[in-house]
Amino acid sequence: CKAARIVHSMLREGRGSYVAFHIRRGDFQYKEMKLSADKILSNVSPFIPPGVQAAYVATDEKNLSFFKPFFQRFAVVRFLHDFTESADLAAINPNYLGMIDQVVCARGSMFTGTWFSTFSGYITRMRGYL
To answer: Taking Cα atoms as reference points, which of 127, 119, 129 lies closest to residue 80?
Structure first.
């Protein structure tokens, strides 16, 4: 399974754990939910388990410089496109990529989503089943 390959890689790079984020930035209708990366991290930092140094980010943000605070906070920050080769993502229907993102986020030791996002809501729902 493609998602399992990514989860395994994240756990290896994170030395046993990683936190996951869904950060919706594109055409999201709730503009007040578009927080800066600094604000997102300041909101969730007290809840990040001690010692966690890896983060997986599911996002539609194309400008990776937006995530500069994440790169400063975590030793490892990964996005779905980082696994194109290792998980052979080019070989699957692009319509499935969102589902892979959701499974990887669901397996993180902590998940932070975007308020009002159904994508984040389903990840939270999956985490309840684990």
So the answer is: 119
The residue-averaged pLDDT of 16-33 equals 80
Rounded distance between C-alpha atoms, residue 9 and residue 117, angstroms: 27
Q: Kindly write down the DSSP assignment for every residue of the chain, as one continuous string.
A: -HHHHHHHHHHHHTTT--EEEEE--SS-S-GGG---HHHHHHHHGGGSPTT--EEEEEE----GGGGHHHHHH-SEEEEGGGGTTTTTGGGS-GGGHHHHHHHHHHTSSEEE--TT-HHHHHHHHHHHH-
pTM (2 d.p.): 0.92
Dihedral-angle region of residue 18 (phi above 0 means left; psi in -120 to 50 means alpha; beta otherwise): beta
